[in-house]
Structure to design on (540 residues):
């Protein structure tokens, strides 16, 4: 997907707080149409707060976030926050995003067809009438992706899309996002997963309250940047043409090496 | 028991009015109880009923209409709870505890100081079918129609903000307004039903039918009619039983609800275990 210089989201001098504690400090970041951007950083670095500030659910203490007029955002929260016992089917979850545009309580035939189309596009057309608890990890992630896609967003914003999922599901999500990006969708996500997800993305922003580095993984995933971001020494190797981050914080286990 | 004995209470006007109010109240509490249970706000019914008691006492002392005084009091309490809970420094449970117990205590103090305390307090706390008037039937019917209309028109917004409030907010649903409307509906429901059910037991009517219904279905839309049905039937049968057994109407209704819950819990548990066993999980 060719990138353009058309800015969709522009964060300038953005600072956010929880009470008196600063979570984001003077953050600059711009997301252009067609980009696929990953935000990485340790726990408490402000990744989720940055997304919430962009989504308008967390107040910006200083600075500004400007968006292109009439920008449609598709948001995928962490699936770990979902109540899987809630009595809803996949179809009902997906049409929820039309809550503002219609008062009619029942799902209309046209909505049903649109749900089927978006599920087919994500390769899970058969799960429309299932209860959300009856889905596999990969299907769960795809359903919430489908809900975000249902409103034809200009940009997809995802919070930790591979958090708590197994390796196979992570691969599925990564390939799916790559396909969606190739189809022209702009994607902004946060992740902890440096090797499994971040290293595969075209652009990374390293965040620890402020932006430490911004660029492609080869430029950004360096020992000095990672130490500044995570506060711990890390080694970066080359593997299969991609950077591979080695964490030096490993503690030897009892009995190891005997 | 002879057949005509079963209809004996219907010869009394107070019972006719009482059973109409109780049955509509059961359906109304069952309907709103779905949101109370799914939002994890089971304690709020308990809290709001105490808050409304404070409003009822204050209305009596000031000399204004019970429905207006206690209604406004209840709605303000609901809004205060929502505001305090949203600050996240305190959880919703602490917010409910602070706002409603203070309101309840104020009600008690006012009644002790100015009212004919013991009799009035007992009637409000435990409910009484004897005092039900035609105005109560009109009030509970109006609130039931209003609640039903809100739930039909706002079905999607209510469902979205209950399931996933953060994403609902991002998608343009005003979650705060939805919450305030829901809490106001709860306050109004408690207000118009407290004379029959009583403030102490009304929270059970908001929780038990919805909790029992939840175990029978995985569909939100089905839940919205199964829960009111359980509420209405248990209130109707409970009222009849209370007359024949000479027990408190509210206590009989709640005990019947509890019995329904136990039966559903047992049947649902057995069914789930059989399903899991057939899948080879146990």
């Amino acid at each position: 997907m060719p990138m353009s210089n058309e800015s969709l989201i522009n964060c300038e001098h953005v600072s956010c707080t929880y009470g008196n504690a600063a979570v984001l400090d003077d953050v600059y970041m711009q997301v252009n149409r067609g980009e696929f951007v990953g935000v990485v950083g340790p726990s408490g670095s402000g990744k989720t707060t940055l997304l919430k500030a962009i989504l308008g659910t967390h107040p910006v203490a200083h600075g500004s976030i400007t968006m292109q007029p009439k920008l449609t955002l598709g948001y995928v929260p962490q699936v770990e926050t979902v109540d899987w016992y809630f009595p809803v089917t996949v179809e009902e979850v997906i049409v929820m995003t039309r809550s503002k545009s219609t008062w009619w309580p029942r799902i209309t035939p046209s909505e049903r067809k649109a749900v089927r189309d978006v599920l087919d596009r994500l390769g899970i057309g058969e799960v429309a009438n299932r209860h959300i608890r009856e889905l596999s990890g990969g299907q769960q992630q795809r359903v919430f992706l489908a809900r975000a896609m249902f409103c034809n967003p200009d940009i997809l914003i995802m919070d930790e899309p591979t958090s708590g999922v197994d390796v196979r599901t992570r691969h599925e999500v990564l390939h799916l996002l790559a396909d969606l990006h190739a189809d022209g969708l702009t994607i902004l996500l946060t992740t902890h997963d440096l090797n499994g997800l971040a290293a595969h993305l075209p652009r990374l922003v390293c965040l620890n309250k402020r932006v430490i580095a911004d660029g492609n993984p080869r430029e950004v995933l360096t020992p000095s940047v990672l130490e500044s971001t995570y506060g711990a020494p890390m080694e970066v190797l080359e593997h299969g043409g991609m950077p591979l981050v080695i964490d030096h914080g490993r503690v030897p286990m009892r009995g190891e090496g005997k | 028991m002879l057949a005509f004995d079963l209809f004996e209470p219907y010869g009394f006007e107070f019972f006719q009015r009482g059973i109409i109010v109780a049955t509509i109240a059961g359906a109304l509490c069952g309907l709103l109880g779905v949101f109370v249970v799914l939002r994890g706000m089971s304690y709020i019914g308990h809290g709001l009923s105490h808050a409304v008691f404070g409003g009822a006492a204050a209305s009596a002392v000031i000399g204004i209409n019970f429905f207006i005084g206690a209604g406004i009091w209840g709605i303000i309490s609901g809004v205060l709870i929502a505001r305090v809970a949203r600050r996240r420094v305190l959880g919703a449970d602490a917010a409910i505890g602070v706002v409603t117990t203070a309101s309840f205590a104020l009600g008690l103090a006012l009644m002790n100081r100015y009212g004919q305390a013991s009799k009035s307090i007992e009637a409000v706390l435990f409910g009484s079918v004897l005092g039900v008037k035609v105005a109560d039937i009109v009030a509970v019917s109006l609130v039931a129609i209003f609640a039903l209309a809100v739930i039909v028109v706002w079905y999607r917004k209510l469902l979205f903000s209950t399931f996933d409030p953060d994403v609902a907010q991002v998608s343009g649903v005003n979650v705060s307004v939805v919450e305030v409307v829901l809490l106001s509906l709860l306050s109004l429901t408690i207000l118009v039903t407290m004379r029959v059910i009583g403030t102490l037991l009304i929270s059970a009517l908001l929780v038990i039918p919805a909790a029992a219904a939840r175990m029978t279905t995985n569909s939100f839309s089905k839940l919205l009619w199964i829960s009111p049905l359980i509420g209405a039937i248990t209130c109707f049968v409970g009222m009849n039983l209370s007359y024949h057994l000479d027990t408190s109407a509210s206590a009989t209704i709640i005990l019947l609800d509890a019995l329904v819950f136990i039966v559903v819990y047992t049947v649902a548990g057995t069914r789930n275990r059989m399903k899991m066993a057939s899948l080879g999980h146990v």
